[in-house]
Design brief:
The protein is an alpha/beta fold. The chain is 23% helix and 12% strand. The strands form 3 sheets. A 4-stranded parallel beta sheet has the order 1-8-3-2. A two-stranded antiparallel sheet has the order 4-5.
C-alpha cells in the first residue's frame, strides 16, 4: 500500500522486517527484491506522489566539495526520486572501470565486470527493456551506422541505451512505472512525506 505519514498520529509505530529509505530507483528495486521473500518491507520517502513541495526539496541544500553540481536541481524528493527527470539513459560499466590504475588512488575493484552480468540482466528488466542489449558493434551493425573516427588509444567509445516507451510502462519514471505495484503489494508499505531523522536502538 501507499500511505501518507501525515495521516498517522504522532505516536504510531509502523512494524516491518526491513526499512528501505528512499523511493527512487534503488529503493524501489530493493523493496521489490526483499519483499519477494514474504518479508514485510517499509519503504519511506521524504516527498509525496508528485513534485510540488519546495520545503521538502530544499532539504537537499548543501555544498558540493567535488564536482560543481546543484544538489537541489540534480535530485528530486518524490516517489520515483530522480528518475522523474532521468530520461532512461543506461550503460554498463566498462572493463577499464574495474582495473587498478597506478595514477588513480584507490582504483581497481576486487572482481571483474563479468560478475555483474546477471545483475545487469535483472536491472534491464526492472528498467523496462524487453530484451538483452546487443553489444555495441552489433548495435551499430543493426543501425547500419558507425562511430566517427577517433583515437581509441585515448578515448574509449561506448553507446548509451535508453529505456523504451512501452504500453503501460514509463520505465524512465519509476514513480509512475511502479506506483500500482507498490500500491497493490501486500508486503510493501510505502510511506510518503516520511523524512528519516535518526536511528535508535
Amino acid at each position: 500500500m501507499i500511505r501518507d505519514l501525515r495521516e498517522y498520529s504522532p505516536d504510531t509505530t509502523v512494524q516491518a522486517d526491513i526499512c528501505v529509505i528512499g523511493a527512487g530507483a534503488a529503493g524501489i528495486t530493493l523493496a521489490r527484491e526483499l519483499a519477494s521473500g514474504n518479508r514485510q518491507i517499509c519503504l519511506v520517502d521524504g516527498g509525496g506522489l508528485d513534485y510540488g513541495f519546495p520545503d521538502s526539496q530544499e532539504l537537499y541544500q548543501g555544498e558540493s566539495v567535488g564536482a560543481p553540481v546543484s544538489l537541489i536541481g540534480g535530485r528530486l524528493r518524490f516517489l520515483g526520486g530522480s528518475t522523474n527527470h532521468w530520461g532512461g539513459r543506461c550503460a554498463p560499466l566498462q572493463e577499464i572501470d574495474f582495473r587498478r590504475r597506478e595514477w588513480i588512488a584507490h582504483s581497481g575493484w576486487p572482481f571483474d565486470r563479468r560478475e555483474l552480468d546477471p545483475y545487469y540482466a535483472r536491472a534491464r528488466v526492472m528498467a523496462g527493456f524487453p530484451s538483452n542489449w546487443l553489444s555495441d558493434p552489433a548495435t551499430l551493425a543493426a543501425l547500419n551506422d558507425s562511430l566517427p573516427a577517433i583515437d581509441t588509444a585515448r578515448i574509449l567509445p561506448f553507446l548509451w541505451h535508453y529505456t523504451p516507451a512501452t504500453p503501460g510502462f514509463a520505465g524512465w519514471n519509476w514513480g509512475k512505472a511502479y506506483k500500482s505495484v507498490l500500491q497493490d503489494s501486500p508486503h510493501i508499505n510505502t510511506l510518503l512525506h516520511a523524512n528519516f531523522t535518526a536511528f535508535s536502538t
